[in-house]
């Protein structure tokens, strides 16, 4: 009997079919979502950029044109769009400024990548080409940069001013820029000159006055009053300051329980014990020569009671209560003292010393406590920010933070480059010339990268109400003639040598923006599916 032959399926490559439509759809939807986020913040780029009014779910209103703040408050659902929020946060952490720029560049790159993908270029080829272009772009930026010395205060102030000119509080840049420079230079450690910790600069916000009243304080400022209970002192010269983390109040039981008092004699005995307990603590404090107490806020029980405040006032000790836990490190570093966690450890060598501690009235009903003339003061500084309303104060704080970050960038990497779209046009020109030398798909992709960078000068001109096409064409022409520092002067509405106009920014802001934007775009390109796990 003959065996029946079963036909075997042929594994021919020509007959296999892979559905790539879904992968393309996912990629295009990711690009479209991220691009729409970039377009949302694009109008707030540059000195003439628009501000955004953000209404939060809690009913608060924020007015800002800081890219990181706008994106942070956006409630996004699409995962790729959320990546642009993270990109903005990364730029904020790395450089502090350029948070809008990095998102706009990423949006333009994604748009170029979409066109490359529709022409059939593989995402991996596009991704690798973007990486090569970014590395080359960094080399071009470094070659354009001008070295700056930390002692050159004028250059540092120019750079901080450029950062502030695009903010809501731009009219106060002449006050805030030198203030930011002085604040950062005062905390630079000569032993580690490349490292600046912005946590050593404390910004205290106080409602009232105008932004013009903002000042740099050499010492400490508390946005609270001195404790006035029982007529205690509000001014103390030759102060010996103790920072305490324990409570000057009667002890409580460790577990939740009730004590039943049956007669008056027992009540008197409890009150007498309380008085002697508190009095014993205050005598110990007074015995060390301490005459100013900073008391940390307590969550277990009251840090101070009316009785303890009464005894402290009698002992002529000035009291500042409800000091936040996270401020203790800054306070002890500034006063060059140690925090005291237990009354048994209260000793004179743990105290800080200052010439004057006083309560200062600001003339509009507000009061602050100021500590000045601190002996052996740590490398810290305090900025007191004033403003007519909370929205202005919050925006002034954000703008000041960006200016501080710009000065920190210059301390870390001491190079300046021109602003006003000059580096982006120069990058576009040089990368475009390099792309012509390369062969195949790589050159095509790098040319697309170069053209994407023109979005920055184009947007600057557009936001300033100028003709963007005419301005960018003229800018290309000037750079082709060798004027590498030619940029858009939005105040004059024309193209000038932007370096001579003092529009400068740290090299780190631009290099970081190019690197981070490219990394983000490459990551989005490599995604071909979204898996939802419930």
UniProtKB/TrEMBL annotation:
Recorded GO CC terms: cytoplasm
Primary site of residence: cytoplasm
Xref: SUPFAM superfamilies: GroEL apical domain-like, GroEL equatorial domain-like, GroEL-intermediate domain like
Keyword RNA-binding on entry: no
InterPro entries recorded: Chap_CCT_delta, Chaperone_TCP-1, Chaperonin_TCP-1_CS, Cpn60/GroEL/TCP-1, GroEL-like_apical_dom_sf, GROEL-like_equatorial_sf, TCP-1-like_intermed_sf, TCP-1_chaperonin
A Pfam family: Cpn60_TCP1
Nucleotide-binding among keywords: yes
Ranges for region Disordered: 1-25
UniProt KW keywords: ATP-binding, Chaperone, Cytoplasm, Nucleotide-binding
Subcellular location: Cytoplasm
GO molecular function: ATP binding; ATP hydrolysis activity; ATP-dependent protein folding chaperone; unfolded protein binding
Compositional bias annotation for Basic and acidic residues: 12-25
UniProt record similarity statement: Belongs to the TCP-1 chaperonin family.
Function: Molecular chaperone; assists the folding of proteins upon ATP hydrolysis. Known to play a role, in vitro, in the folding of actin and tubulin.
UniProt name for this protein: T-complex protein 1 subunit delta
Organism: Lupinus albus (White lupine)
């Amino acid at each position: 009997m003959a065996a029946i032959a079963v036909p075997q399926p042929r594994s021919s490559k020509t007959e296999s079919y892979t559905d790539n439509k879904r992968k393309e759809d996912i990629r295009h939807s990711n690009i479209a979502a991220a691009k729409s986020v970039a377009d949302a913040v694009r109008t707030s780029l540059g000195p003439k950029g628009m501000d955004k009014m953000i209404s939060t779910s809690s009913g608060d209103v924020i007015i800002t044109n800081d890219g990181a703040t706008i994106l942070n408050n956006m409630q996004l659902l699409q995962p790729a769009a959320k990546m642009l929020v993270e990109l903005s946060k990364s730029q904020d952490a790395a450089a502090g400024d350029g948070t809008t720029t990095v998102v706009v560049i990423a949006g333009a790159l994604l748009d170029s990548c979409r066109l490359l993908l529709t022409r059939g270029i593989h995402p991996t080829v596009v991704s690798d080409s973007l990486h090569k272009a970014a590395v080359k772009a960094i080399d071009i930026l470094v070659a354009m940069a001008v070295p700056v010395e930390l002692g050159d205060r004028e250059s540092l102030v120019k750079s901080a001013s450029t950062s502030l000119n695009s903010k809501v509080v731009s009219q106060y840049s002449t006050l805030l820029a030198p203030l930011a420079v002085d604040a950062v230079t005062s905390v630079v450690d000569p032993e580690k000159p490349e490292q600046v910790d912005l946590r050593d600069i404390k910004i205290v916000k106080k409602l009232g006055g105008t932004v013009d009243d903002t000042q740099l304080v050499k010492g400490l400022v508390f946005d609270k009053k001195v404790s006035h209970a029982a007529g205690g002192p509000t001014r103390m010269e030759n102060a010996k300051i103790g920072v305490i983390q324990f409570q000057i109040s009667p002890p409580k039981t460790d577990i939740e329980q009730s004590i039943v008092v049956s007669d008056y004699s027992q009540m008197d005995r409890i009150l007498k014990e309380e008085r002697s307990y508190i009095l014993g603590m205050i005598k110990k404090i007074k015995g060390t020569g301490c005459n100013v107490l900073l008391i940390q806020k307590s969550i277990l029980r009251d840090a101070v009671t009316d009785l303890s405040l009464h005894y402290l006032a009698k002992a002529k000790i000035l009291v500042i209560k409800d000091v936040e836990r996270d401020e203790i490190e800054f306070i002890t570093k500034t006063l060059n003292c140690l925090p005291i966690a237990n009354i048994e450890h209260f000793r004179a060598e743990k105290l800080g010393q200052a010439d004057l501690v006083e309560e200062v009235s600001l003339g509009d009903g507000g009061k602050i406590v100021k500590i000045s003339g601190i002996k052996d003061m740590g490398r810290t500084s305090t900025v007191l920010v004033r403003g007519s309303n909370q929205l202005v104060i919050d925006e002034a704080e954000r703008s000041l933070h960006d200016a501080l970050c710009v000065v920190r960038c210059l301390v870390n990497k001491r190079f300046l480059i021109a602003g006003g779209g000059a580096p982006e046009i120069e990058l576009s020109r040089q990368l475009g010339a390099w792309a012509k030398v390369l062969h195949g798909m790589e050159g095509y992709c790098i040319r697309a990268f170069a053209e994407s960078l023109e979005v920055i000068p184009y947007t600057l001109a557009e936001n300033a109400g100028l003709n963007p096409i005419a301005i960018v064409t003229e800018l290309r022409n000037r750079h082709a003639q060798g004027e590498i520092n030619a940029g858009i002067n939005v105040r004059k509405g024309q193209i000038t040598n932007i370096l001579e106009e003092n529009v400068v920014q740290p090299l780190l802001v631009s290099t970081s923006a190019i690197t981070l934007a490219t990394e983000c775009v490459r990551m989005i390109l490599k995604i071909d599916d979204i898996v939802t796990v419930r």
